[in-house]
Each structure stands twice: as C-alpha cells, then as structure tokens.
Amino acid sequence: MTEFRRLGILGGMGPLATLDFQQKILAATAAQRDQDHVPVVVWNVPQIADRQQALAGNGPSPLPQLLEAVKGLNQAGASHIAIPCNTAHYWYNELAAASAAPLLHIADITAQTILEASFRPQAVGLIATQGTLDAGWYQARFSQAGIRVVIPTSDELARWFVPGCYAVKRGDLRGGGQLLNLLADKLIARGAQKLVLACTEVPPALGSVGSRHLSDSIDPGAALANVCVRMWHQSHAAF
Questions:
Q1: pLDDT tens, residue by residue, 134-153
Q2: How far apart are CA 101 and CA 70, in angstroms?
C-alpha cells in the first residue's frame, strides 16, 4: 500500500464544493494541534470545462485540464488524490493511468460506507447529474449489494436538479436548495429509505434550507473525507 504522506484534492468543480470538501476533512479529524491535521494540496481551478455540458455534447471535454491538474498534484507531492466532483469520475480511468499517486473512487467509498453502516437501506434515492446516472457507477455497486436504486426522471432532472445545481454555482444556495429539496421529496415518496447526494452542490444547498432530508442522506463527499482522514492517521500512526 502506498504510504499516505499528502492528500491531493482535484477540485474547482465547483470552488464551493471544493471548500465544502476541505471543511469535511477538518470536521472528520480528531486533532489536538495543527500538526494532527491531514496535509493537503488543493487544485481549485474553476476554469475546468463544464462536465455536464461536455457529456451532453454541448461543450469541450475537461479531460486535458483534469490531466493537467493530476500532473500538478503529483508534482506537488500528493501521495493520494481525491476528486470531490462525482461527474468528473467519468474520466477516472484516464486520470488514474496518468497519475503516480493512486486516485480514490468516490463511488467505491460510498458503497463501502453504506455496507458498513448499522442500517443498510433496501432502497436508496440517487441525486446526481445525468452524466453520473448514465455512467452507472453507483447503480452497479448498490445493485451488487442488493440495494434498489431510485433515480430521478428526465423531467425531475430538468425541473429541479439542473436549475438547482446551477443556482448553487452562481451563489444562490437557498434557491438551489429549495429546488433540490423538491427532488428529494419525490425520491423519498417513491420508496427511497436513504438519499445518496452524489453531486457536490447538493449537500450545502439542502443544508442552506434546513432540509429534513439531510438526516435521510449519505453524503459521498463526507464519506470520501472520512476515508482520507482515516488513511492519513493509519499511516501517520506507523511513524
């Protein structure tokens, strides 16, 4: 196993989501002093091409910029790389092949978090971009564990998810939260016992409106942060 020396965060997608992920790393760390925290190098470059638009065929691929980010994080001494953006995992294989530092896969970590929980839901609602839904990472992992996946309809994505997501990106967390909360209502009504908030804009948006669904949710970003902190402390304890 590669020694966990320094975490690289491939962020900027979007900048708020990157800061939110860093906050989750801090919250997951039981520290008594500065030196107990996870050493982090962050690539927070918002000019990476829009992932949703690229996968819809309406914009350029972000892959060249993502490869530049991976190269930069490796040069900065990252021993492991985390990508808070779910949709960016569409290019995971290409990025992993180009990186000396191993890349953590957010869907693997989320699925393992659910399997290790005291309550394993029979059905989860998946809030994600069309690109993430089409890629099927989460559906495959949950189905393998015997968990049914409730996904948004095309109409629900168009009415609530897409405008809610882009509201957050332009700084309107409350407006975005109200729209995304309506989508969460629908997935719970269709039988989801837990929601998987598989888009980094969703957790802060729902939090901004005090959504009751946060207690019914699994946050992949928080799961990823918890694993990063655990890996750091396991490696650090060996010194």
A1: 999 999 999 999 999 999 99
A2: 9
Are 178 and 209 a contacting pair, CB within 8 Å? yes
Q: Within 10 A of 148 (CB to CB), how many other CB atoms are there? A: 15
What are the structure tokens assigned to 88, written together?
């960016």
Reported as type and span, the H/E element at residue 124 is: strand 123-127
Assess whether 211 and 226 both reside in one domain. Answer: no
Domain region containing 43: 7-105+222-237
- Residue whose pair of structure tokens reads 């929601």 in the numeric block: 195
Q: Are residues 66 and 146 both part of a single domain? A: no
Mean pLDDT, range 3-18, rounded to an integer = 94
**Residue range 6-29: mean pLDDT, rounded:** 95
pTM above 0.90, yes or no: yes
Active site residues: 85, 199
Query: Nearest Cα to 87, choosing from 220, 231, 225?
Result: 220
Domain count, the chain: 2
Residue 169 placed within a domain:
yes
Extract the tokens encoding 206. Answer: 């729902």
Residues 6+ apart with CB under 8 A from 133: 126, 139, 151, 152
Q: Hey, what amino acid is at 140? A: A
CATH, residue 158: 3.40.50.1860
- CB-based contact 192:122 (threshold 8 Å): no
CA angle 158, 160, 166 (to 5 degrees): 85
